[in-house]
Amino acid sequence: MSVVPADLETSTPRMGSAEHRHLLARFFTDTHVEYVPEKIDWPALSDAELERLTGLPFWQEAVSTENVTSNTVAAAAALEPDEALREAIALQGFEEQRHARLLKALTAHYGIAIEEPPPFTPRSLERDFLFAGFGECFDSFFAFGLFALARESGYFPAALVGIFEPVMEEEVRHILFFVNWVGARRAQLPWWKRPAFRARCAWIILEQVASRVRTARALSRAAKQDSPQPGENFTLSAHQELAAPVTLHGLLGKCLEENERRMSRYDARLARPRLVPGIARVLYRLLPASL
Q1: Residue range 154-205, pLDDT digits in tens
Q2: What does the radius of gyration of the chain's CA atoms come to, in whole angstroms?
Q3: Over the stretch 183-194, which tens digit does the pLDDT of each residue have?
Q4: Domain layout of the chain by residue ranges
Q5: d(Cα 68, Cα 74) in Å, to the nearest integer?
Q6: Between the CA atoms of 266, 270, 271 and 277, what dihedral angle is there, to the nearest 10 degrees?
Q7: DSSP string covering 48-77
Q8: Domain 15-286 has CATH 1.10.620
Q9: What's the whole-model pTM score?
């Protein structure tokens, strides 16, 4: 995988320029990694490890989410007139579909019962792609921290955790590509269309924030009842299942640390996600360490 260290690049191209679009497409295609989920050699698990894995409550939600995202991204390639960027979006769609295949391979190998989600057909290519992309910005940020907690806690064997390391790197690349694509698409619009595009993005972000607030409230109610449920946005609650006890403050700190570490490996000329890390930093400063 080709990665340009952040300290080796200083000249940042104008967002949406031909140079920026070329950089974005090249970054994504050059860092693609080949692997076949159906050929993975899954590690043998002890009875206790298998019980932990099969007992996680979010497998169905994870498979359903990947089904929607993979179909949405694959269809969104038609949005892009730039051939190189169109190919990059199509490649991202392939990677998202591969995530779904990986989850199916895992659940099949370890005997985790899931229902095959119904086919998902995007209704509005741009809106659905924006909704999926902004959703990934939220979910991936928390996934980085959760993955680190699972790795550090030894909750699962290192061989199993290592299988999902390429998935984590793909999520980094996906959200890097997305935030730069959004900026490029906005920059290429006539000036009089840009406010409407910004408004659409802002509305979708508010929908995603509202969704997370509902999840947080549901988790709070479930915690009082001592019966936490994964439900929607399962990445927000997975720390209760994947690692040793950790506070919300501690989880936010780990997510910020991992987000910075993973993002720093890629070309510094690409714009970084700011919204979710920014919200997390504010909460991390405001929340007491005991919470």
Answers
A1: 888 899 999 999 999 999 999 999 999 999 999 999 999 999 999 999 999 9
A2: 19
A3: 999 999 999 999
A4: 15-286
A5: 10
A6: 0
A7: HHHHHHHH-TTHHHHHHHHHHHHHHHHHHG
A8: yes
A9: 0.88
